[in-house]
Hints:
Chain A has helices spanning 36-44, 92-97, 106-118, 134-146, 164-181, 192-198, 216-221, and strands at residues 2-10, 13-21, 25-29, 51-56, 59-63, 68-69, 77-80, 152-156, 185-189, 201-206, 209-214.
Amino acid sequence: MLSVSVRKRLNGFYLDVRWRIEKEVAVLFGHSGSGKSLTLQLIAGLVKPDEGTVLCGGRTVFDSSSNINIPPQGRRFGYVFQDLALFPHMTVAENIAYGVKKNGNQQLKDQVRQMVDVFHLEGLEARYPSGISGGQRQRVAFARALIGRPDALLLDEPFSALDAPLRNEMGRFLTVIRRQFDIPVILVTHDPAEACLLADSMIVYSAGKVVRKGRPAEIVKHPAHPEMPPLGSEIFITPQS
Amino acid sequence: MDNSAIFPIVLSFQVALVVTVFILLAGIPAAYVLARKEFRGKELLDVLFTLPLVLPPTVTGYYLIVLLGRNGLLGRYIYGLTGWTMMFTWYAAAFASFVVSVPLMIRASRAAIESVDRNLINASYTLGHGEFKTAVKVILPLAKKGIIAGAVLSFARAIGEFGATLMFAGDIPGKTETMPLAIYGFLSSGDWAKAHGMVIVLTLLSGAIMYLANRLSKRAF
């Protein structure tokens, strides 16, 4: 369970959102500038909310009323950045291993090998991020975010740089992640096709507020809000995998 | 070359190497703090660190005498306690070179640290690592190029230091006479041949160091 209730004023923008998700893939959907990425930063502790609470699995990581503010390194959230933020000076294996706090032993090597298997990165361990493809970089970022067994996974439009076939592949990976790790996953996107394909539930943002919550099918069928695109565009034909 | 020419070459290298070590030790933490921390008086501190770069070396040397000379603000206590004064020793030459060249290190390293991608730093935090490990494993390796460039510039500046060294360490042959001082000394005594030789040595060495450093920083990330 991940429960978020935060307010933040930043450069003339006001974010005021409250939502809660279970162990599912929830999509934060909305135009750019509606506060989706900021919400992830507030959850991860990279930006401090003005007030509110962030709870994950019964653990309070932020609570302004009782002055709890665990720093990002203590929050145990996996975070995949929009530009992936792979360390350019580390190999694939080193990037993945960096996701474990204590390292340098045999157990870590086994963990890295396991993640390499899960994300089909065999043979790339000694390469640098600049020497692998976009889809491979993506998978390294996921492996790095998940190796430490986080309490939740935060995805900030990690698929936006990929073309459609690769995106479908990532959708399948998300299914694997859910099965293997069984944690709440938040996916930020402004792509309705991606939202429909990947989400169990959908939270629609507009101008720093939550305007709708629900199953993606319902929301798409009854848009009733300008944030949703008109129906009938070919992007919705993509079958559920 | 006789001893009067060998000694300045050896001393200049000794000074420049020692200074570079201390510049790395002091300059990297100073640059890190200036680049990553917000505190009151930060820009004032930056001005203080940069002043030796813009002041004439004679002025910097003057301050060093006022501060660390035998009767200086700090120097008198050091002399009172130990009977020793830094002035007119090779330590003085090294310290003067340090003060004059450390701003180059701080400025180059600060710019390099500031330009490290914010997301990479945040990624390190979200992966469970605190500030120290993030600095050592992510920020400094990614700022390596700028840090190396800063160290090289400092080394070059230190090996060519003249004004502050002359003021604070004096020009004592066989004791504090570095290459630039020796060149000046040879010239004033009309010994053109020796001055000529040493100018060539200094020019070639400085050029070689810059070339090597450029190669080195191109190979680094």
